[in-house]
Amino acid sequence: MLYSEETVHHTLERGYMKEVQVDLLKGDITERITDAIVNTSNNRLILGSGLSGAIKAKGGGRIAEELQKYGSIEIGEAVYTSGGELKAGGVIHIALTEFDGPITEENIGLSLHACLSLANKNKLKSLSIPDLSVGITRFPPDRCAHTVFTVLKRFIEKENRSLRLVEIVVWDIESLRIYKEAYPAFFHQEME
Fold this sequence. Notes:
Elements (H helix, E strand, L loop, with lengths): L9 E8 L2 E7 L9 E7 L7 H10 L1 H8 L9 E5 L7 E8 L7 H17 L4 E5 L10 H18 L6 E6 L2 H10 L5 E2 L3
Parallel strand pairs: 2-7, 3-5, 3-6, 6-7
Antiparallel strand pairs: 1-2, 1-8, 4-5
């Protein structure tokens, strides 16, 4: 069987921090088998295009139906739905922007923290997080990687109660390079 680059997932970096494995992967987050994946959305929680559209296409209409009960949420908030027909058990939807608004560093930090807190509340052990800099209004990926790793490290050190595996899943080679360069400053790498 042949596999395309998009469907083959390799762990490129692996680090441990307070018994939490933090992996950096290149691939399709909708194919991850974790307790939940993270959907980057706007405050209206519409599953339209990009990652949201892929989640709707692969996960089915049940996810969109579950989102309807929330209506709109504030920037920096997160909500949890089932995974529908996805391989992941659930989806944590975070509001990075207002509808068609810009992504900011503050919004990335607030949204990621809300996501991690919700993972704790739901006692999730594994979580796959996409590159939070992508979308219609792309945020500089180097600043995003730094923000993501800063928030993740602080959360693991001070608040984490349930997570044992966190995957950062990027889609393209350039983002992978950027995240890979930033990674060692935050997480101890274990040689395989």
